Each structure stands twice: as structure tokens, then as C-alpha cells.
Amino acid sequence: MTSAPEALLSVRDLRTYFPTSRKGLFGPRGSVKAVDGLTFDVYRGETLGLVGESGCGKSTTGRAVIRLVRPTGGEVIYNGRDLTQLSDGEMRRLRQKLQIIFQDAYASLSSRMRVGAIIGDALAIHNLASGRARAARVGELLHIVGLDPSFASRYPHEFSGGQRQRIGIARALAVNPDFIVCDEPISALDVSIRAQIINLLEDLQRELKLTYLFIAHDLAVVRHICDRVAVMYLGKFMELSANQALYAEPLHPYTQSLISAVPVPDPDLEDSRQRIILSGDVPSPVNPPSGCVFHTRCPIARDQCKQEIPAWREVKPGHWVACHFAGESIARA
Fold it and tell me: What is the pLDDT of residues 111-128, one digit of tens each?
């Protein structure tokens, strides 16, 4: 018998709402439900992929998990402690183990700081190294991510997009983290550079025993790099499963439509596949639909979907879905 995987992070009913302006001078204040009741675990050593359309709450989820954004409610348990209840001082000390790689490799690096200072600041903040030891560690980190240690004296504007993202990765690695949120780390890069960054992340994970939450909208990349995949829509999870199971047998209509859009390299097979085109637009997170939030665009929606919120349930071992009629196919490939 194999032992159950160890959960590095346990997220329970995570909610992150952002207040909106009032309707009129004395009208009620609304809220954008960016993340609305997510429950999941991230297992030690795995890469959990998080996919969905732009604006569905993926990046907010990643930032809320490591408390870069303060959650409105719920729990994020790490090493037996609920991160949502920690003070700013306690959270700052814990950030050594929880890091993030940002999407925009240009905006995330200060143009006024040299690369050595950008990477070395984290070492100084957490009292990990100083003086010559700090400079040596910065050079080591640059070497680890495939850059020349002499680049420490340069400024970010002297580098390409791919090199800047490597610097961002080095900064995240500086404090020896356990868990890294990869917030669409390749979406802003040229196609020729993306494979290099993906391979680097995979190599680092094996060598340093890292755990990733990998946020992306490219399903082909997610299929390559992730162990499990969570599909998100309008602040909620639609489905979560092991990688192979999700792509081989998607149970939620939204997941089926996403996977139908992934190109297949075989021209004959691609021509024979049926694309599932969803009608309508994504509703506003300020005023989400009643019942299942996907019912306004779902091809198999029924009256029950409009009235009842589907339970987040495990329909097969390790395969979770939020759908009253999970597994009912809406297309045949």
C-alpha cells in the first residue's frame, strides 16, 4: 500500500472579495467576488496547475494563499498554522518559505536597483547572509538559474525578457522556500524562450524539492508540467484532478470546452475533432449568477443548475467536481 501524499498547504473555503464603489451617495457597497469558497490541498513536492479564463481569479488565489492579498475569509494551513490569522510580523518571518514568481518580468524588477541588490535584499531581510557571503550567494543563485554571476552588477533594463524572468526566479529561490506561486511565469515571454523557463523550473523542483502552484492559461503547458490541475471559473473551482485523468476524461462541461480548444499536432485528428464553443460572455463577479455560476453558458444546464449551488464533491478517487450532472458529455472528440 502506498501512503497518502503529505499536504504542504491546506486551503479551506478561501474567499477574497474586493469592495466596489457605492451606488449613489447612500447606496449599498457591493463587492467583487474574486475568489469565492475554494477548498483544496497542495501536496509536498507536486506542481498543482490552476487554469481558467482571464479574470476568473487565478492570480488572486495565488496571492491570497501566500497572503500578498489578505483573504476575506477561510483558512490557509501551513505547518499547522493558519496564515489568515497571523499578524503582519509573524507573516513576514514566514515568507521565507512562501515565495512568488511574477508574470511581468519587466514590472516586477526595480529599474533603479542592480541585480545583485534585487536578489540580495531578501538575504538581508531574513538575516541569511551579509557582506562577502551575501555576494557569493547572489553569484551562486545567478549560476543556478543559468546566468553569469558577473551580471549582479548590471541593471534589469540590460537584459532580455527571458533573462529577467530568470532573475525573478533567482530572487524567489534566495531564501530557500518550500512553496512557490508561479503566476503565469511564461505568458509574457517569446515562444522560443518559454521551453527554457519551463525546463529550468522543472530542474529546480527536482534539485531543491520545491512545491509549485502553477498559474497559467495555456493548457498545453499545464499538461506538460503539472501533476494535478484545477479548473477555475468566476472565482470558483469547477474541477480538480490528476493531470492525465483530467485530459482523458473531463467531467465538467466547462473543462470539456477548454480541452476541446487545445490544438492537436496531428492535422487529420484536429480536423475530426469537435470544438465546443460556449455562448455568451463571462458574467460579472460583482453580481454572479444564482445556483451554478456556469449555468448561463452551460450547454447542459437545467432548472436545478439555476437554483442550487453544486456541491464540491469527490466523484472518483482524487477527482473533484462541482456539477450536478458531472460526466455528461457535451461533445465527442
Answer: 999 999 999 999 999 989
Q: Ramachandran region of residue 293, left (φ > 0), alpha (ψ -120 to 50) or beta?
A: alpha
pTM score, two decimals?
0.91
**Cα–Cα nearest to 294, from 317, 321, 267, 323:** 323
Task: Write the single-letter amino acid at 115.
Answer: V
As a whole number of angstroms, the distance between CA 197 and CA 179 comes to 18
- Which residues lie closer than 8 Å to 315 by C-beta, 6 or more apart? 251, 321, 326, 327
Tell me the Ramachandran region of residue 120: left when phi exceeds 0, alpha when psi lies from -120 to 50, beta otherwise.
Answer: alpha
Task: Quote the distance between the C-alpha of residue 106 and its chain's center.
Answer: 19
- Cα–Cα nearest to 252, from 162, 312, 182: 312
CB 44 within 8 A of CB 6: yes
70-87 residue pLDDT tens = 999 999 999 999 999 999
